[in-house]
Amino acid sequence: MKEINFKSLIITLVVGVAIWFIPVPDGVKPNAWHLLAIFVATIVGIISKAATMGTMAIIGITLCATTQVLAPGDPTKSILNALSGFGNSTIWLIGLAFFIARGFIKTGLGTRIAYSFIKIFGKSPLGLAYGLNTADLILAPAIPSNTARAGGVIFPIMKSIAVNMGSVPEKAETHRKIGAFLTLSSYNANMITSVMFLTATASNPMAQKFARDLGVTITWGSWAIAALVPGLVCFLLVPIFLYKVFPPELKETKEAPAIAAKQLKEMGPMTVKEWLMVATFFILLVLWIFGNLFSIDATTGALIGLCILLLCGVLTWEDVKSEKGAWDTIVWFSSLVMMGSFLNSLGFIGWFGHLIGGQMAHLSWQLAFPVIILVYSYCHYMFASATAQVAAMYSVFLAVGIAVGVPGTMLAIFLGACASLMGSLTHYGHGPAPIFFGSTYVDLKDWWKQGFFMSVLFLLIWFLVGGLWWKVIGLW
């Protein structure tokens, strides 16, 4: 019972029941409205932590089946529809990528990559930041959980370096020496790398799936190309920006490369399994980028990668079974995607999009576009994850934009990116946030203050640099 917050659960129930019994608006099917009640209640339960995300997801699936909102009068079809999310290839892409990511951590390859960049770039705080961030960037395409990248690879190394440089978490007066700077740099870089690849965080494929439901097709390659330039500009500017507005007291870190070199020496030469992991990583990238040429989609490519790792002994079946994060994601992801997809197929998303779009009909798409992005972005203060925001709001905002004429692919990718980029705003805004904030290097006031500045920087870059780049590649 420790996982259940009864106060939040009661609030969740009240919200769901209230929406259920509100008179159904004209133009909306009754079962679509009742599905909305279950969906909103599930999201409220997740946000308010009434129970774990997996528990809320299972409750949502069960309610959809028992109330038969997905197939009124047909209990067999109702349960099949309620479980249909588990047959979605996008969901399995994320689950498979979690399994593959375990190979990076198990073999030590992720840690080796991070220390290698610190050895090369780590003679100054700015160099250290770029070294850690580059390691994150390289790992991002193959590790779909940015929480796993942050918690399993980047954060432990960052904290170790900071402590060795004299920034001790228990001594507040030492935080600004270098620990606070590296904390914000590494965290915000994690937000940036999360939006640069479709497989870099769980919310991206969810956005891809909802976009496809609305007629917008996004591939792994098209996402990467669209995010490449604004993402790299953010990647290059964030450490410099923080160095100016939130500077470390240390200006040199000559000891860091020696520390990294020592760690690498202790690790020894690359093992056979690490080389196999490298080879599999490159095979995956080729399949994800050029898979369409071979009629291989992204999920099939991930299956091939996992089979290689299993056959070569890099991973065992026990590793796959024990990857709790993957199985947890598959469950709650299936529930939210299922409900979001049926809200669309039952006509609710289209109805609501046209309703809101009608209020913006007097605006040109060029004016409506920034309004949609800004409102969607700063709603993230209400969310503790990008996935929750995408599940709750993405389809509606995309439908509104398409209704007023905003180019669909451009809006779909930008909205998908905003859900992660706006994780910079708060100390709870994304999965890795509690990890970095928990180091105590940055206090709450500075986190929110610098986070807001960062959000403005991100949006300016994506509107200006991204807008010009998307014009070049023909997205508008």
Automatic annotation (TrEMBL):
It is a multi-pass membrane protein. It is found in: Membrane. InterPro entries: CitT-rel, SLC13A/DASS. Keywords: Membrane, Transmembrane, Transmembrane helix. The chain crosses the membrane at residues 6-23, 35-59, 79-101, 138-157, 178-200, 220-243, 275-294, 300-317, 329-351, 363-384, 396-422, 451-470. Its main location: membrane. The keyword Nucleotide-binding does not apply. It comes from the Bacteria. Belongs to the SLC13A/DASS transporter (TC 2.A.47) family. DIT1 subfamily. NCBIfam families: dass (TIGR00785). PANTHER family: DICARBOXYLATE TRANSPORTER 2.1, CHLOROPLASTIC. This is Malate transporter YflS. It comes from Pedobacter mendelii. The gene is yflS.
